[in-house]
Design goal:
One of its GO terms (biological process) is proteolysis. By secondary structure, the protein is mainly β. Helix content is about 10%, strand content about 35%. It is built from three helices and 16 strands. The protein is globular and about 45 Å long. The two termini are about 25 Å apart.
Length: about 250
């Protein structure tokens, strides 16, 4: 349940050798080229945990609501999930709250990874005295183009690499939709946006985490080929066109 990592294998044929996809790409999600930060600077960030182990990121969008990616919750029961908030570290400190219910977008398509969004309802609200605070979401009619954003998470520091204990943040720039769509062979839908910068990206373990422009969340870490690949920017669930589903579950 992380960002998409394209796996290739060499298959030798009578006429020569060529590259083929070994199997359907698996979801992976990381912060490459970022820096360690403290939760006080990104109080909306949470760790989504499966039986107590970090699997994805998420963001607080209401007193008892968390936004994450659908591929992070697909196949899981609410009883298996919890979130850790108000902590710089994914495995300690802060407050752990169980998930009461999962509202996974019924339009989510695991083959195309389109409409990749879930709203979690927590078993109890986050206290006003806690560090954890909601982040506003971008408006449904927000325009795209040439934006700079920050992505946070506890994902791997390199493609297939180790995952840090401390929260990481990276600055990325918006990639033109048509250019991104060409890079991914037409796989970018209206519910996706692309961001990336040379040597900087989200990766394994960051899935479901927030992409923020200014003080509003515009994206959810979703997928991509590898991490920080110069030809393949990170792909994020596009919050603006997904607002109808999100708002219905607040």
């Amino acid at each position: 349940m992380f960002r998409l990592l394209l796996l290739l294998t060499v298959v030798t044929l009578a006429a020569g050798a060529k590259l083929q996809r070994a199997s359907p790409p698996r979801l992976d999600g990381k912060i490459v080229g970022g820096k360690p930060v403290k939760i006080e600077d990104y109080p909306y960030q949470v760790s989504l945990q499966y039986y107590g182990s970090h699997i994805c990121g998420g963001s607080i969008i209401g007193p008892n609501k968390v936004l994450t990616a659908a591929h992070c919750t697909s196949g899981s029961s609410a009883s298996s999930l919890s979130i850790r908030h108000s902590s710089t570290y994914k495995g300690s400190e802060g407050v752990v709250i169980k998930v009461a219910s999962i509202a996974q977008n019924p339009a989510y398509n695991p083959s195309t990874i389109s409409d990749d969004v879930t709203v979690l309802t927590l078993a109890e609200p986050i206290k006003d005295s806690d560090i954890g605070k909601p982040i506003a979401m971008v408006e449904a009619n927000a325009t795209e183009g040439d934006r700079e954003a920050v992505c946070t998470g506890w994902g791997s520091l390199s493609s297939g690499g180790s995952s840090p204990r401390q929260l990481q943040a990276v600055d990325v720039k918006e990639v033109d939709r048509k250019e991104c769509n060409r890079s991914y062979g037409g796989g970018i839908t209206d519910t996706m946006i692309c961001f990336g910068s040379p040597g900087k990206d989200s990766c394994q373990g960051d899935s479901g985490g927030p992409l923020v422009v200014g003080d509003k969340q515009v994206g959810i870490v979703s997928w991509g080929y590898g991490c920080a690949h110069p030809e393949y920017p990170g792909v994020y669930a596009h919050v603006a066109p997904l607002r109808t589903f999100i708002d219905q579950n607040l």
